[in-house]
Amino acid sequence: MMAAPVLDIQNLSVRYTTERGNLQALRGVNLTIPEKSIVGIVGESGCGKSTLISTIIQLLANNAKITSGDILFKGESLLDKSEKQLRGLRGTEMSMVFQDPMQTHNPVLTIGRQMIDIQYRDPLSKADKRQRAAEMLTLVGIPDANQRLDQFPHEFSGGMRQRIAIAMALMAQPSLLIADEPTTALDATLEVQIIKRLRELQAEIGCSILFISHHLGVIAELCDSVIVMYAGEAIEQGSVRDVFHTPAHPYTRALLQCDPGNIKEKTRNLPTIPGEIPDLVNLSPGCIFQSRCAQTIPQCAVAHPEFHTSKTGHVAACHLLQPEVQAQ
Amino acid sequence: MTALLEIDDVAVRFAVRSNLLTEIGLMPPAVIEAVSGVSLKIEAGETYGIVGESGSGKTTLARAVAGLHHASAGSIRYKGTELRGLPESRFRPLRRDIVMMFQDPVGSLSPRLTIKSLITEPFRIQGMKDRDMEAEAARLLSMVGLPQEFAGRHPHQLSGGQARRVGVARALALDPKLLIADEPTAGLDVSIQGEMLNLLARLQDELGLAIMIITHNLNVVRHITDRVGIMYLGKLVEEGPTEDIFSSPLHPYTLALLAANPEPNPDAELQRIELQGEPPSILNRPTGCEFHTRCPFAQADCEADTPVWTATSTAHNHRCHFPEIWNEQRQPTEHAN
């Protein structure tokens, strides 16, 4: 029997109550993270990436409400758990790495103090905790770990600080690491270093990673599978090969075409996706991407597209994928 | 023929860690050189890219050109006029010609002002009161492709991409000759990034503007710049025509940067150049070639001898002892793969 996936989200919808009315931030999102896998999420700002993360760690804003669906973490619903139980999970079973390595750490405490402090749950002696902190630093590739523990965050480079953040997130050997654009602030050589290190650590610790980025190149290199989000919906998902080589949704195709890394000939006129993300307070019926799509058919304006799944498990929500439409 | 902007051997130094002894003058204050020995030229109408990791001195260099930091040594000439040491009263008129677009697009707009007063502020600052502000606001909004009704809005009502367009309108209000754009597309989605870069390219063609663009996105640099300079620890390690830099880099750091650029293709065959160790601290610069601590091709001499800034016949300049030797060294491994 297959082990339950680390994270299994089914038909998740979240809305925010705002002055203008209900904002439908997430609608019918499905997402599965199998054990020991790296799943990427791509999408423009406003696509619901941050709401999705807050929902997973159950730290939604006060005006947010889950209106449908369930989040199963290792087979158990997070929605049934008490705040105390959730606290027991955060930081131990699931942990997070944030975007900006310069602001993640407390500037007035040494790295060692901060790494010892976060082990407050463990019944170890301080010396043992320090020893573990040093081991984690070595694991993420920081030499002279024992001396380095006595230094302050500003004495480390940006790449090192991000690796320290990763070390801290992995200290409790979580089952799920959520990384929210962890490489945006770094140059290409350090970005590659972090990606490589994440891959090695993932194999060593055996955790799963949910990796959020809008850098398509990083997703292609690091992840096993990818979910493309647009205006609050997961419009396409599948293995990175399927999604990057044979994108099934017009939005994914447009996104890939817009990446300057995909344009070989030098050009001063880069492709763009005309139009803007629809207003999530006043949703019109039909497909969410219709106003910006170059391939609309009459159905797109009236009906919300169903998910179509290919033999390889490549899922996309587009009317053009219906067998009847494909036949024409 | 003088270039629009000529930077010669410029350094920007900051004093750090003052204490009682330095305060009363018994000890010289410790100094870091955030920008060191940088030389480059920007011609009228040209796009010049500055690339390098965070902390490599890109923004400090840009601010020195815009007169927001004082250069400690060297020379910065705009149309032949020396900018270094120019008093503020004489620099101010030049700010019509040299403008800067800051990194944080929303943070650089005052939240209390309307878009109209924000984009016409440059006229008021330069004392051009005779201008018809209504007409100027309308002209600038249409120039950057924003609807006219935006004039009455406030910054918080704009999206990130729109706020950047307001930033462009503000910067170009006075018809400058040189635009310094600090990370103009950081944090933008690929589609909006494309819109922003297309806008800059169009305005450059229409207005004959020179652009100095700071970024760490190599894919952007490859498409939109004519020349590019690569910075490491506050120094240019290489600069030259964009095509030359991308096809035949003369400094190993450039090569490593180019090789590290992730491609949006899961099956891409990448030939990575592994850099050893960490970027050194600018407070404690390595001896000799400052890249030798991480360079995969370093030779014995690199630790002791400081490489000089070397020009080639194609205006492709670099700071490496042995570009020929390592370029030869890396060839066989490429064939083996």
- Overall geometry of chain A: globular
Class per helix and strand makeup of chain A:
alpha/beta
Question: Could you list the spans of chain A in which at least 5 consecutive residues all have pLDDT below 50?
Answer: none
What is the number of helices of chain A? 12
Largest sheet of chain B: 8 strands, mixed
Order of helices and strands of chain A: EEEHEEHEHHHHEHEHEEHHHEEH
What is the CATH C level class of the largest domain in chain A, in words? Alpha Beta
Q: What share of residues are in beta strands of chain B?
A: 15-25%
Set out the fold topology.
The complex is a heterodimer of chains A (328) and B (337).
Chain A lengths: L6 E12 L2 E13 L4 E5 L6 H8 L7 E10 L2 E2 L5 H7 L4 E4 L13 H7 L8 H14 L5 H4 L9 H13 L5 E5 L7 H18 L2 E5 L3 H7 L2 E6 L2 E7 H6 L4 H9 L40 H4 L4 E3 L5 E3 L5 H5 L1
Parallel strand pairs in A: 3-8, 3-9, 6-7, 7-8
Antiparallel strand pairs in A: 1-2, 1-4, 4-5, 9-10, 10-12, 11-12
Helix pairs in contact in A: 3-4, 4-6, 6-7
Chain B lengths: L4 E12 L3 H4 L6 E13 L4 E5 L6 H8 L7 E6 L2 E2 L5 H4 L6 E4 L13 H11 L7 H11 L16 H13 L5 E5 L7 H18 L2 E6 L2 H7 L2 E6 L2 E7 H6 L4 H9 L49 E2 L5 E2 L4 H14 L1
Parallel strand pairs in B: 3-8, 3-9, 6-7, 7-8
Antiparallel strand pairs in B: 1-2, 1-4, 4-5, 9-10, 10-12, 11-12
Helix pairs in contact in B: 4-5, 4-6, 6-7
Q: Can you offer a commentary on this structure?
A:
The complex is a heterodimer of chains A (328) and B (337). By secondary structure, chain A is of the alpha/beta class. Chain A has two domains: 7-93 and 174-263 and 271-327, P-loop containing nucleotide triphosphate hydrolases (Rossmann fold, 3-Layer(aba) Sandwich), CATH 3.40.50.300; 104-173, no CATH class. Chain A has helices at 49-56, 83-89, 111-117, 126-139, 145-148, 158-170, 188-205, 216-222, 240-245, 250-258, 299-302, 323-327; strands spanning 7-18, 21-33, 38-42, 64-73, 76-77, 94-97, 176-180, 208-212, 225-230, 233-239, 307-309, 315-317. In chain A, strands 6-7-8-3-9-10-12-11 form an eight-stranded mixed beta sheet. In chain A, helix 4 crosses helix 6 and helix 6 (158-170) packs parallel to helix 7 (188-205). Chain A is globular. Chain A starts with 6 loop residues before the first strand and ends with a helix. The model of chain A has no long low-confidence stretch (mean pLDDT 91). In chain B, strand 7 (178-182), helix 7 and strand 8 (210-215) form a beta-alpha-beta unit. Chain B is globular, with a radius of gyration of 22 Å. In chain B, 43% of the residues are buried. The model of chain B is unreliable at 333-337 (pLDDT under 50). At the A-B interface, helix 6, helix 7, helix 8, helix 9 and helix 10 of A face helix 7, helix 8 and helix 10 of B.
